[in-house]
Amino acid sequence: MPHILFMTGKLAEPALRRMLADLAPRVGFDYSVVVLPITVAALATTPWIAAHFTPGAGIERILLPGQCNGDLGVLRQAWGERTIEKGPDDLRDLPDYFGAADKSGAAYGKYDIEILAEINHAPRLTLAEIRTIARKAKADGADVIDLGCDPGAIWTGGSDVVKALRDEGIRVSLDSFNPHEAAFAAKAGAELVLSVNGANRAAACDWGCEVVAVPDTPAQCEGLADTIEFLQTHGVRFRIDPVLEPIAFGFAESLGRYLSTRKQYPEIEMMMGVGNLTELTDADSAGVNVLLLGFCQELGIRSVLTTEVINWASSSVRELDLARRLVHFACTEKLLPKRREPNLILLRDPKLRAHGEETLKELAASVRDRNFRLFAERGRLHVINAEMWLQGTDPFELFAEMLKRTEIEPAHAFYLGYELAKALTALTLGKNYVQDQALRWGFLTVPEMNAHSS
Predict the structure, then answer these.
(1) Using CA atoms, how far apart are residues 351 and 431, in angstroms rounded to an integer?
(2) Considering only CA atoms, which of 167, 175, 248 is closest in space to residue 212?
(3) DSSP string, 61-120
(4) Which top CATH class is 3-103?
(5) Contacts of 391 (CB under 8 A, 6+ apart)
(6) What is the model's pTM?
(7) How far is CA 171 from the centre of its chain?
(8) Domain residue ranges of the chain, discontinuous segments joined by +
(9) CATH topology of domain 114-339
(10) pLDDT 10s digits, 342-388
(11) pLDDT tens digits for range 187-199
(12) SS3 at position 305
């Protein structure tokens, strides 16, 4: 059985020992704990550790606290070639660190749904603006950039834009019912035209690219079968989009159309424009996108069209890129899409962790300096240093009480105010708060690069 040496500071020692007593037998390792001569191990640097500790013979694997700063090469040079690594930033994540190796996760990350990211009102934008939007969408996970045209006048510059994007290796589609715009775009390298129905399908025979077949009247799906038959007869490549309708305007019936269309045409590629739901519903788009992609994955709809116009849907491409991996894994492995993609959980955290009353009590009794330790758990804010342990729900009241007991310099007051604001946000939304670390917002998280000491 492997033996692991865990290094910690004085304050975290009791909690670490309790954690390891339960974790080691479950995972299958022996362990020993070294308590460094420092209150908080995260303040230790690798040169400092090398100067204050030397492991004995036979210790092959050493785990440092995740927040410990410095190059591990310093320790390898001092201690010889051993396995030296940093664990998680929070010791409560040790079970995941050791036990999260789920064999079923080996296939995670694959997908088979294509994302088309539409640039709305493309004719109103400059080429530079379109390039900027297209490059970002591609970096976020879009496979095809869809140029959305305006009804009315023909976009004479569309072919130049298509060619410019294609020269950069960007795949392009055109969103227009105008046969002249479609012809120009296809000749310049557009691989797909959205959309054709009874009004313009004849012109599609000359474009030489794939098209999207839609109903003449979506509510009754009128004309779709005729358009499909026409395109098949004339050898035009196509995919079908029965058209997703917004809530209160036929949403449920439109889902039924996708089901019936798939049943009628089991082998033909299909597409769904998800923007009619994400853009037109007062709800953060991430959950809506996951739900719609789950529907698409089960039904074999292999392409989706999205927009990022309204603010609450402004990260839809990135959401869809993560969602398509999640639903592909779930459907392929026949597993629930749960505890698999934490980057899609934005508002709350996947799992709340608490130190608990006993640990905070031990911490309050052992702290010997005036530095403030801040915690947010079980509905309350906690402020701990050698002089006080305050608890409450109002950061203003807590700060007033802190000022009664000790003098706080302006710069430090600013720091404490910033941290207490984060802590209150965590309590309000159901998130984990760790002092000097950014709150977690899924794939939108921005790490704090210049955290100040408490």
Answers:
(1) 8
(2) 175
(3) EEEE-TT-BS-HHHHHHHH-S-EEEE--SSGGGHHHHHH---GGGGGTT----EEEEEET
(4) alpha beta
(5) 380, 381, 382, 383
(6) 0.81
(7) 24
(8) 3-103, 114-339, 348-454
(9) TIM Barrel (3.20.20)
(10) 999 999 998 898 888 888 888 888 888 889 999 999 999 999 999 99
(11) 999 999 999 999 9
(12) strand
